[in-house]
């Protein structure tokens, strides 16, 4: 079997499903487990740090691990960086069969830091019987030195190992998400998959086809570049969101109109928090809005509410999506479509609109109908922590000796 530690809502698992293979995931978060159940994925709800290793010995040929990254991520307090020496010590001890986790944990600034050492506990137990055949691990870039420590140990055990930083956009993910990757194998040379995309499209050569241009958010979401449709509204405050701001039926009307491409609002604030969104003709400054009017606003995605937030236009991939304590703060922001136009100053500036869980999931290359469980905050947390399935499939296909068809990952809703 394939063992998936810290399985989350199923980024690795969905990739395996697309490839025609299944894994068994260990996951503690109840909402991630509900999401996995809805997606038909095999799951044991448990604390990875407490679960015994003996049930897997003699039956595991692949191991996947994406330990929680909150203690290491740029998005958090980064206390895990202060704990790095303790985590390295835990990996060294576990690789020799010594369990010093309790003593080391007492000195940690962040109780989650040692979770990054847990894969070594499983790897040591499996190595006693010559397992697994291969390993794939993923984390935020700051964890790369730890992956290099893992690599040195795995090489002593007979593995070929590669570690490095990969950009998900280079593999068709509409997001410039950079992650530290470890790939190891007992049966083949470990190496990163060949990139399929580049920031600028490359021409074909005598050596093969050129790389396609990075996938834009507009392409991934199915929003035509010329249509500039209003993003779907996700209003309400706080991590759990709030009540639906539209009167009954009005949100469906706006969404249907967007999908049909028959209504191109030049003032997306009409689709914000006003109950007037269900009316017929609207006003924008001194002009009447009509379906035939040219669009006056384009949209960009702002990654958070910090001063240095990444802002990307719809024609580009998103920046790295992260949520957690900044849940629901990833927003669509309006920009004039014709900055030099004579009458743009007369227009009412639309409000920013929070991204929806479905939109965020699509930008992570999950299907539009993926069964996210929980309230808005719980869904966003799962999405932000997940491995993009399309990137995961590129990493796993060579280990499984299976072909990967990029068309298996439909991006647009």
CATH topology (fold) name of the largest domain:
Rossmann fold
Tell me what the CATH architecture of the largest domain is: 3-Layer(aba) Sandwich
State Rg: 23 Å
Q: What count of helical segments does DSSP give?
A: 11
Broad CATH class of the largest domain: Alpha Beta
Report helical residue fraction: 10-25%
Keywords: Methyltransferase, Restriction system, S-adenosyl-L-methionine, Transferase
Protein name: DNA (cytosine-5-)-methyltransferase
Region (Disordered): 226-302
Biased composition (Basic and acidic residues): 253-262
The gist of it:
Residues 253-262 have a biased composition (Basic and acidic residues). This protein has helices at residues 11-19, 30-38, 84-95, 101-105, 118-127, 144-156, 217-221, 250-260, 357-363, 376-385, 389-400; strands spanning 2-5, 24-27, 42-45, 62-65, 134-139, 160-167, 178-185, 197-198, 212-213, 283-284, 287-288, 297-302, 311-313, 331-336, 353-354.
């Amino acid at each position: 079997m394939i063992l998936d530690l810290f399985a989350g809502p199923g980024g690795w698992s969905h990739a395996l499903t697309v490839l025609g293979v299944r894994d068994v995931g260990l996951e503690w978060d109840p909402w991630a487990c509900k999401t996995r159940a809805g997606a038909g994925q095999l799951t044991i709800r448990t604390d990875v740090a407490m679960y015994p290793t003996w049930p897997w010995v003699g039956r595991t040929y692949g191991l996947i691990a994406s330990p929680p990254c909150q203690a290491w991520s740029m998005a958090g307090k980064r206390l895990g960086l202060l704990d790095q020496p303790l985590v390295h010590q835990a990996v060294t001890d576990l690789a020799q069969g010594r369990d010093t986790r309790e003593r080391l944990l007492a000195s940690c600034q962040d109780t989650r830091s040692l979770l990054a050492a847990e894969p070594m506990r499983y790897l040591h137990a499996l190595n006693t019987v010559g397992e697994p055949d291969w390993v794939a691990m993923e984390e935020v870039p700051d964890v790369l030195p730890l992956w290099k420590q893992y690599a040195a140990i795995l090489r002593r055990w007979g593995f070929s190992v590669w570690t490095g930083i990969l950009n998900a956009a280079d593999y068709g993910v509409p997001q410039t998400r950079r992650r530290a990757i470890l790939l190891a194998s007992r049966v083949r040379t470990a190496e990163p998959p060949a990139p399929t995309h580049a920031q600028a499209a490359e021409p074909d050569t005598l050596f093969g086809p050129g790389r396609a241009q990075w996938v834009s958010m507009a392409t991934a979401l199915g929003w035509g570049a010329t249509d500039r449709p209003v993003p779907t509204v996700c209003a309400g405050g706080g991590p759990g969101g709030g009540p639906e701001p539209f009167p009954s039926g009005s949100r469906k009307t706006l969404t249907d109109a967007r999908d049909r491409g028959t209504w191109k609002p030049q003032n997306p604030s009409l689709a914000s928090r006003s109950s007037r969104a269900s009316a017929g003709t609207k006003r924008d400054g001194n002009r009447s809005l009509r379906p035939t009017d040219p669009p006056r606003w384009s949209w960009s995605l702002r990654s958070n509410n910090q001063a240095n937030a990444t802002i990307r236009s719809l024609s580009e991939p998103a920046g790295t999506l992260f949520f957690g304590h900044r849940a629901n703060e990833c927003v669509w922001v309006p920009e004039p479509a014709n900055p030099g136009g004579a009458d743009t100053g007369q227009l009412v500036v639309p409000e920013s609109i929070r991204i929806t869980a479905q939109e965020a999931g699509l930008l992570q290359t999950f299907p539009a109908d993926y069964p996210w469980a929980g309230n808005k905050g719980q869904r966003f947390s799962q999405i932000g922590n997940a491995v993009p399935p399309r990137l995961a499939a590129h990493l796993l296909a060579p280990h499984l000796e299976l072909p990967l068809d990029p068309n298996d990952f439909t991006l647009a809703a």
